[in-house]
Amino acid sequence: MISLPYALDLAGTFVFALSGAMAGVKHKLDLFGVLVLSFAAANTGGIVRDILIGAVPPGAISDWHYLGVSLAAGFVTFYFPARITQRWNPVLLFDAAGLALFAVVGAQKALVYGLNPVMATLLGMLTGIGGGMARDILLAEIPTVLRTDLYALAALAGAAIVVVANVLQLPPGPAALVGAAFCFALRVLAIRRHWRLPVARV
Amino acid sequence: MISLPYALDLAGTFVFALSGAMAGVKHKLDLFGVLVLSFAAANTGGIVRDILIGAVPPGAISDWHYLGVSLAAGFVTFYFPARITQRWNPVLLFDAAGLALFAVVGAQKALVYGLNPVMATLLGMLTGIGGGMARDILLAEIPTVLRTDLYALAALAGAAIVVVANVLQLPPGPAALVGAAFCFALRVLAIRRHWRLPVARV
Amino acid sequence: MISLPYALDLAGTFVFALSGAMAGVKHKLDLFGVLVLSFAAANTGGIVRDILIGAVPPGAISDWHYLGVSLAAGFVTFYFPARITQRWNPVLLFDAAGLALFAVVGAQKALVYGLNPVMATLLGMLTGIGGGMARDILLAEIPTVLRTDLYALAALAGAAIVVVANVLQLPPGPAALVGAAFCFALRVLAIRRHWRLPVARV
Questions:
Q1: Which one of B115, B118, B201 has the shortest CB-CB distance to C57?
Q2: Which of residues 8-47 of C touch A (CB under 8 A)?
Q3: Are B179 and B186 in contact (CB under 8 A)?
Q4: How remote is the C-alpha of A53 from its chain's centroid?
Q5: DSSP state, A144?
Q6: For helices C172-193 and C88-112, angle between their N-to-C axes, nearest 10 degrees
Q7: How many domains does chain C have?
Q8: Among the listed ranges B42-46, C79-83, C122-126, which one has the minimum average pLDDT value?
Q9: Helices (H) and strands (E) in chain B, counts
Q10: What are the distances in angstroms from CA B68 to CA A119, B35, B58, B61, B75?
Q11: How many Å apart are CA B73 and CA B69, to the nearest integer?
C-alpha cells in the first residue's frame, strides 16, 4: 500500500505530464520528444527544487514511479490525443489540483531541509510552475506562466499558507489542506473569470 | 552594519535585475513574469556556479536579501519603465560595474571551493554572464552575450586577474580591485568604441 | 599515459564540440559564442548527469582537459568552417561514436553512484543527448533530438545493454563494448535509411 500524499503526488505528476505531452503533440514532436516533454513538464519543478536544497539524487530520479507515471501519460496522449483534447476542461481542473499539491509539498520539503520561510515559499511555487516552464523552454517559447492568468500567484499563495503555519507552529496537516484548497480555488476562479496580473504600460 | 563586498554584491544584483525587468517589460510579460526575469537575470549566474561547485543551497536561495533587492528592481521597472529607459546610459555603466564585481567574486568563491585555476576563471565569467543568458533563454532568444561586444571577454579578464594573483600568491584584496577595474574599463571601452569579437566567414 | 576509456571520452567530447561549433557558426555567433556552444554541446549532458547523481564538481568542470578539447574543436570550426562542412559525413560517423560512448560511460557512472537500473539507463541516454539539447536551447530552437531519427533511442539502447548486464552480473567490459557497438550501429543505420519514430496524428 502507498500513502495518500504519495498517491496524490503521483496523480499530480500524471496530470502535469498530460500537459507536457499535449504541447509536444501540437508541435509535431516524435514519440520520444512527446515522452521527454511529459517527463519534463511533470518533474522539472521538483528536480530543480531538490538540486537547490541539496536533496540529490532528486526524488523524481531515484524513484522510478514518477518516470512510469509520466511515460504512461505521454503514451496515452500520443496515441489518443483527441480523447485528451475532448476532456480538456477536466484536465484543467486536475492541473489546478496538481499545482496546489506540488506547491504545498514543495514548500514542506524546503522547510524540512532548513530553508528560510521566504525561500521555502518560493521553492514551493517553483515546484508548481517549474515543469511548465521547462516544457515551454524546450519548445522554444516564452513560458506561459510569465504572462498568464494568476497561475504562479495561486501556487505562491498555497505555499505561503503552509510556510506561515510552520512559522506560527500550527499543525502542518490542516495547514497543507488549507493551502492546497486555497491555491486550487484561486486557480479555478482565475480560469473561470479570466483574472490576470497587470502588464506594464511602456 | 553590512560589509562593503556584500553591499557591492547587492548593488550588482540590483542593476542586473533592472536589465532583466526591462527585458520582461519590453516583451509584455505580466507583473509576475517581470519579477521572475528580475530574479533570474540577477541570480542565475551565481546559482549555477554554486550548484557546480557544490555550495548548496546557493547563496541567492538561502539569503533572502538577493531576492528582496531583485524584486525591488523589478517593481521599480514595472511601474516606472520610462524612468529606467531615460537613464539607460547610467544603467549600462552600473551593469558594467555589476559584471566586474560578479566576475571577481565568482572567481574567488570557486577558488575557495578548490576549483583549479582554469575552471575558477571560467566560473567567475559564468557568474557574470549567466544571469543575462538565463534572461534571454526565458524570452526564447539567443543569449546576446553569445554575439555581442566583448561582454564575456571583460568578465573573463577580470576573473583571470584574480585567479592569476591567487596562483602567484599575491594579496587577494588588491588583485580583486585590479581585476574588477580592468573588467569595468574593458566593458565600458567596448560599449563606447563598439569593439566586437570576429564572426566566422562561412 | 592516459587510459583508453579516457582517450575515447575526450574524442567524443571533441566531436560533440564540433557539432556545437558548427551550429554557432551557422547562427553568426561571434568567436566567444561559438566557443560556448562547443563547450555546451560537448559537456552539458555529463554535467547535468553529475549534478543529478551528486557528483559535484562535475568531471567536465574539475578536469580542464574537457574544456581544452572543446575549445580546440571550437577554434578549428571557427577559423576553418569549410573544412568541417566538407567532412560532414565522417563527422556524423564520429558523432554516432561519441553518442555510443557517452551513453555507455554515463550509464556506468550512474550505476557506480547507486542509481536504480531504470534511472541509470535514462541518465546514460541523457549523457548522450543532453549536449545537443543544450546547444539547441541556446540557439532558441526546439531540440532536434525531440523530433529526429532515432538519435535518443540509439543512446537508450546502448545504455540499457550496459545496465541489464550489470543487473545480470555479467562482466562490465564486454557489456560496454556490445552496448556501444549496438548504439553506434543503430544510429548509423537510422541515418542511412532515414528511420524515424512516429508522429502523433492530431
A1: B115
A2: none
A3: no
A4: 18
A5: G
A6: 140
A7: 1
A8: C79-83
A9: 9, 0
A10: 11, 11, 16, 11, 11
A11: 6
Instruction: Report yes or no: A70 and A42 within 8 Å, Cβ to Cβ.
Output: yes
The verdict on residue C198 lying in a domain is no
A172 bridge partner residues: none
Cell digits for A89?
476542461
What is the SS3 assignment for C199?
Answer: strand
Residue B159 · residue B104 · CB < 8 Å: yes
Distance (Å) from the alpha carbon of A127 to chain B's nearest alpha carbon: 14
- Pair A115, A53: CB distance under 8 Å: yes
Q: Strand, coil or helix: what is A1?
A: coil
> Per-residue confidence of chain A (202 residues) as pLDDT tens digits?
567 778 888 888 999 999 999 999 999 999 999 999 999 999 999 999 999 999 989 999 999 999 999 999 999 999 998 887 887 777 788 889 889 999 999 999 999 999 999 999 999 999 999 999 999 999 999 998 998 768 899 999 999 999 999 999 999 889 999 999 999 999 999 988 888 888 887 6
Cell of B70: 531583485
At residue A199, what are phi and psi to the nearest 5 degrees?
-115, 140
ipTM: 0.88
Question: Cell for C194?
Answer: 532515414
Q: List, for residues C51-100, the tens digit of each pLDDT value.
A: 999 998 999 999 999 999 999 999 999 999 888 788 777 778 888 988 99
Q: What is the pLDDT of residues A41-96, one digit of tens each?
A: 999 999 999 999 999 899 999 999 999 999 999 999 999 988 878 877 777 888 89
Q: Tell me, yes or no, whether A138 lies in a domain.
A: yes
Asked whether residue A201 is domain-assigned, the answer is no
8 A C-beta contact, residue B99 and residue B187: yes
Question: Can you give the C-alpha Rg of chain A in angstroms?
Answer: 16
Residue A128: DSSP 8-state: H
Give the single-character DSSP code of A169: T
Contact of C1 with chain A, judged by CB distance below 8 Å, is answered with no
Q: CB–CB of C146 and A32 under 8 A?
A: yes
How many CB contacts within 8 angstroms connect chain A with chain B? 81
Report if residue C24 sits inside a domain: yes
Residue B121 lies in domain:
4-193
